Amino acid sequence: DAGVTQSPTHLIKTRGQQVTLRCSPKSGHDTVSWYQQALGQGPQFIFQYYEEEERQRGNFPDRFSGHQFPNYSSELNVNALLLGDSALYLCASSRRGYSYEQYFGPGTRLTVT
Amino acid sequence: GIQVEQSPPDLILQEGANSTLRCNFSDSVNNLQWFHQNPWGQLINLFYIPSGTKQNGRLSATTVATERYSLLYISSSQTTDSGVYFCAVGSPRLMIIQGAQKLVFGQGTRLTINP
Hints:
The complex is a heterodimer of chains A (113) and B (115).
Chain A: E1 5-7, E2 10-13, E3 19-24, E4 31-37, E5 44-50, E6 53-57, E7 64-68, E8 74-78, E9 87-94, E10 103-104, E11 108-112
Parallel strand pairs in A: 2-11
Antiparallel strand pairs in A: 1-3, 3-8, 4-5, 4-9, 5-6, 7-8, 9-10, 9-11
Chain B: E1 4-7, E2 10-14, E3 19-25, E4 31-37, E5 43-48, E6 52-56, E7 59-64, E8 69-74, E9 83-90, E10 104-105, E11 109-114
Parallel strand pairs in B: 2-11
Antiparallel strand pairs in B: 1-3, 3-8, 4-5, 4-9, 6-7, 7-8, 9-10, 9-11
């Protein structure tokens, strides 16, 4: 039973660039959530996708956008990168209508220079 | 929004000791999860426990939803238990549609087990 997978593992970008992170949910799951974890902090909710639509959004600017595909996988896009976007980006999946429990992937560590 | 507070922020113990980590939350919840974050950053699911008590080997957890707290117990600590432990909650007030729920995390407890 495959767990949540994310790619890439690490990424280094320059200020002003754009980045795309990818996530495949756990087998049988249909809902994907994205979180940002700054160093020394707990993860912060960015947004959640279900049925290919953004369902909830945290307190993040429009530079953060996402997409969910028919196979339930998801992408997180960040435009006009700032130094403060450097963080660990975590993807979580769950199965709507079955359980609220969320399972997390290994994360993508983004460094903006 | 809902607030989540974990205590203590740091805990240093000798191998073999027992420990208790606490999570307080400010509103009613229908989801509470405990995670262990490994050195590479992955969040490992320990317990899904919106209420009641569960045990898994040397770990156990209790959530008293009416009093808005949860406890994670680690017995006979091992060096591999070291890391950051997070409590995260989901509340009915955070749901826009049924099943779509965000988790709100505490700041974590950093546990160090010395040999």
